[in-house]
Amino acid sequence: MFLKQLKMLVADDESLISLSISEQLQGLGHEVIGTAQNGREAIEMAEQYNPDLIIMDIKMPEVDGLKATKVINQRKITPIILLSGYSNEKIAQKAGESGAFAYLTKPVDKRELVPAIEIALSRFHELTNLKKEVSYLEQTIEARKVIERAKGIIMKRYDLSESEAHLRLQKASRDQNIKLVELAKSIIFSERLESGLSVNKRKINK
Question: Which of 138, 58, 139 is nearest to 91 (CA)?
Answer without folding.
Answer: 58
